[in-house]
Amino acid sequence: MSQNPPQLRPDLARAAIPDARRDGQPTIGMVSLGCPKALVDSERILTRLRAEGYAISPDYSGADAVIVNTCGFLDSAKAESLDAIGEALTANGRVIVTGCLGAEPDYITGAHPKVLAVTGPHQYEQVLDAVHGAVPPAPDPFVDLLPASSVSLTPRHYSYLKISEGCNHHCKFCIIPDMRGRLVSRPAHAVVREAEKLVAAGVKELLVISQDTSAYGVDLKHAEDRGHRAHITDLARDLGSLGAWVRLHYVYPYPHVRNLIPLMAEGLVLPYLDIPFQHAHPDTLKRMARPAAAAKTLDEIAAWRADCPDITLRSTFIVGYPGETEEEFQTLLDWLDEAQLDRVGCFQYENVAGARANDLPDHVPEEVKQDRWDRFMEKAQAISEAKLAAKVGTRMDVIVDEVDEDGATCRTKADAPEIDGNLFIDEGFEALKPGDIVSVTVDEAGEYDLWGRP
What we know:
- It comes from Paracoccus aurantiacus.
- Its cofactor is [4Fe-4S] cluster.
- Residues 153-386 form the Radical SAM core domain.
- Its EC number is 2.8.4.4.
- The strands form 6 sheets. A 5-stranded parallel β-sheet has the order 2-1-3-4-5, sandwiched between helices. The chain has a 5-stranded mixed barrel with strand order 16-17-18-20-19.
- Helix content is 31%, strand content 20%.
- By secondary structure, it is an alpha/beta fold.
- It is globular and about 60 Å long.
C-alpha cells in the first residue's frame, strides 16, 4: 500500500499498458504522459490500433515502434517529455510523437531529429497514418476483431470520461488554448452513450474531465439532441442516473455551478468539486487574466456547504506568480484559512514558452517561490489533518482500488485517484477485490490519508 503525495503533478502520470499479442502480430508500444485528458487520447489511439490488428506492448524493446504521448503544459513537463522521447529512441529507435508538445514540432525535432513523425494533440488520424507508415498493419481476419470495449489504461472499475476539448479562457500563464484550441463540446447523447457502455462493462466510477467542465455545451448553445441537453447540469443528472459514482473535475466557479450542488445533496453526483482557483488576491488574479472575485468565491463556497454539508472541495494554486508581493501571498494564506478547502495542490510558477505571463515585470526569485510554496503547503496540510481527524469514528463508503498482502488501498467519495488521499484497510480485507464499494468505520487519520475497518 502506498500513500499519495498531495502535490502529485498530474502531468507526470504514467499509463500501464496491458500485454496481449499473437505470434507475428505487429506491435506498438506506448507511454502516455500528461493529464487524464491526454490519457483518454491514448486510450482512443490504442483502441483504433487494436481494431486494426496491432498488439500493444508494455515495453519498448518488444515493440515495432513506440508512440510517446507528450505533455507541454509547463517547461518542466516539456523537459520530461523530451526525456521520455529520448528514452524511447534509445530503447527502441522508432518513435512517433503526439500530444500537446506535438504542437511544437520544431522544438521536438530540434532535440530529437530521428523521430519518425510528430503530431499535435487529439490528431488521431495523423497518428494512425504515422503508425501505418512505420509499421504496416497485418490483421488476421480470424483472430483480430474490434474489441467489445475500448482499450483502457485505468483499472477496470473507474474510467475518465472526456466531455469536451479546448478552452475559451485566456489565462496569461497557460498555453492550452494555443495547443488544443477553443472549446469544442461533445454532443450530450454521445457522452451518455459512452458512459452507459462503461458502466455496462463494470465501471463503478466515472471521472468527468475537460479543460473547462462548467462551460460544457456553450459552443453548442446548450442544444438538445436525442433527449439529452448539452449543459453540465443536465449532463450531470443524466450521468448520475446510471448508478455509478460520478466525479466532476476542472469546474470553474461560474454562478450556474450552484445548480450542481442539489444533485450532490441528492446523491446523484459525488459531493466533490475540483475547482482551479489559482489565487485569491484580486491584483494577482487580474495579472493572471482570471476573474478577480475571491470574496464572492468565499460566499459561493459557504452557499455550497449550506446546501450540501458533505461536499469536498479540491483546488490548485500558483505561488510566485510574476509581481506577487508578500502582501498578496499573505492574502492567499488568509483566504485559504477562511475557505478551509479539503484537498489542495500547489505549483511554483514556471515560465512556459509562448505564455503571455513570461513578459510580465517583477518575476519572483526562485528561493522566494520555494519559501512561499513551503508555507502554503504547511497551512494546507494542517487544514487537511484537522478535517481528516474529524472523520475518525464515522462510517463511510469507499471504493477499493488495490488489494495486496498488506491490505486494501481504497478511496472515499472525497478522493479522486492519483491526486487525493487514500483510505487503507489493514485487517479484514481478505475478501475484498478492486472495484468493490464497501462501508467502513474510520479509526485513524493522518495528514492526507485515513485508515479504517469494514
